[in-house]
Design a protein that fits this description.
single chain; alpha/beta; Metallo-beta-lactamase, Chain A; 7-stranded mixed sheet; 11 helices; 14 strands; 35% helix; globular; 3'-tRNA processing endoribonuclease activity; signal; AtsA-like_MBL-fold; Metallo-B-lactamas; hydrolase
Length: 324
């Protein structure tokens, strides 16, 4: 399939609002938009990196912000200045690479509303680093004599979350649960310092669970129990390892071994996605953070079939800009 035709189709799908599921409470209009569906860090000409928008009663929340997020927001018809909050699942760069653009471009275009960034420990340090990245450009501003630019952090704040913590918003309740994207020994300093989250969004009449990046996880299964929509990462681990070998022939053995261990233990195969969905009794599954990025219908059908071998409900392999 021609890539340009596929991209045009994705944009059309967004415009037509490909609604695979709608909430049961008519007073609450909610939509989950997969802005970017390709696992990083390798860039892809068709798919943006992991990012999602949760739109509830015209309020917009970002769930992860990989490279390309601002452009995908615009294509989806959403205004970056209207983002209420950002929820970062973990601090790998394919999930945070679009955040400097979001924060700095909001500053440059005079966004006045407060933007709150929620995430695991380390999120504050990351955002402070974004302010440092902005410092020189903020000082020079537009080069108009006599104009004093506002500080980079004037309308951005950070809230770091803990495992099991819940936060009530106007539109939903958010709950964070530590998943298994890291496997530090429990109780170690690294285990305390580095967390990766799955998130549950409890809306009136609808529950959405986002796995973030994770391996098999009892905590994620528990979080997802009875959810209306499970938005799950998925990776063809063997394919990804083979790709790494091909595009990085000079990669040192120790580095390659570490990456292989990470991919094998800290991500979900199609069968593992099906297993989590089946055990949790979720009503619908949407697969994102896919590696490899899928274009051809036969590829989509192949991976869908593997998930459905263990889960009998509806399964959608998401494209960028799909809406649920």
């Amino acid at each position: 399939m021609n890539i340009l035709k596929w991209m045009a189709g994705a944009v059309l799908a967004a415009a037509l609002s490909n609604t695979a599921f709608s909430g049961t409470d008519s007073s609450v209009n909610s939509e989950w938009i997969t802005l970017g569906t390709m696992a990083g860090p390798q860039p892809d000409p068709v798919h943006s990196q992991p990012a999602n928008a949760l739109v509830v009663n015209d309020r917009v929340y970002l769930v992860d912000a990989g490279d390309g997020t601002v452009g995908r927001l615009t294509t989806a018809g959403l205004n970056m200045q209207s983002i209420e909050a950002v929820f970062i699942s973990h601090l790998h760069f394919d999930h945070t690479g679009g955040l400097p653009a979001l924060i700095s471009l909001r500053w440059q275009t005079g966004a006045s509303d407060m933007l709150t960034v929620y995430g695991p420990p380390g999120t504050r340090q990351m955002v402070e680093g974004i302010f440092a990245f902005m410092a020189y450009g903020v000082e020079g501003h537009y080069g108009v004599p006599g104009k004093i630019p506002p500080p980079a952090n004037r309308n951005v704040k950070v809230v770091e979350l803990g495992d099991g913590e819940s936060v009530k918003f106007e539109d939903f309740t958010l709950t964070a649960a530590r998943n298994t994207h890291y496997s530090w020994p429990k109780g170690s300093e690294e285990w305390k310092k580095f967390l990766s989250f799955a998130y549950k969004f409890e809306l009136p009449g609808r529950i959405i669970v986002y796995t973030g990046d994770t391996g098999p996880s009892e905590a994620v299964e528990k979080l997802a129990r009875g959810a209306d929509l499970l938005v799950s990462e998925m990776m063809d681990i063997d394919h990804t390892i083979a790709l790494l070998k091909r595009v990085n022939p000079g990669m040192e053995g120790e580095v390659f071994t570490g990456i292989t261990t990470h991919l094998s233990n800290h991500h979900l195969s199609p069968e593992q996605v099906g297993q989590i969905a089946d055990r949790a009794g979720v009503k619908n599954v949407v697969v994102t953070h896919m590696a490899p990025g899928l274009i051809e219908p036969e590829e989509v059908e192949y991976y869908t079939r593997r998930v459905k071998a263990l889960y009998k409900g509806p399964v959608t392999i998401a494209r960028d800009l799909d809406r649920f």
